[in-house]
Amino acid sequence: MSSEHYRNPYRGEGLPAVCGSSPRILILGSFPSVMSLERQEYYGNPHNQFWRIMEAVLGIGADLPYSRRVEEMKRRHIALWDVASECLRKGSSDSTIRDVVQNDIAGFVGENPSVRAIFLNGSTGAGKIFSRFFKDFAADFPETAVLIMPSTSPANAAVSLAEKIECWSAVKGYLD
Length: 176
Known about the structure:
Elements: E1 10-13, E2 25-29, H1 34-39, H2 50-58, H3 66-75, E3 78-82, E4 84-89, E5 98-102, H4 105-111, E6 117-121, H5 122-133, H6 137-140, E7 145-149, H7 161-168
Parallel strand pairs: 2-3, 2-6, 6-7
Antiparallel strand pairs: 1-4, 4-5
Helix pairs in contact: 2-7
């Protein structure tokens, strides 16, 4: 990619982890979209299907105020975070993410041994960044499953909402 593309890039910090007591699942995105950062909300772009999927899978109303949705996630022992804590990016596309500073995912799981599974939101964003920085994760945390889910991003139009819901329903299996 040419340096022209990065003439006016955005370098920023992501959002803090959303975590209640004894999380069983950690859902990791790549890095918040520009709109999510402006709103200070995970999956704050109304075109992102994350909250609609959580409504279908867990019954958490997508139209609830953000604070209520987050409380419902915590109540169900689900934490939200991103693989990248900082990055250089033009716009909101994962394909333009560069110069990643990763979050301490291993530290998070070490401090929260209740985590049974990590769900990576997308293969080209969260999945790619996670595999780059956490190559030894499975060896270090053999009891923690790592699953790559279809991205909930509006850019992932190749997978239908119904297919995404079916895949993301795997979350329920780690909450029992």
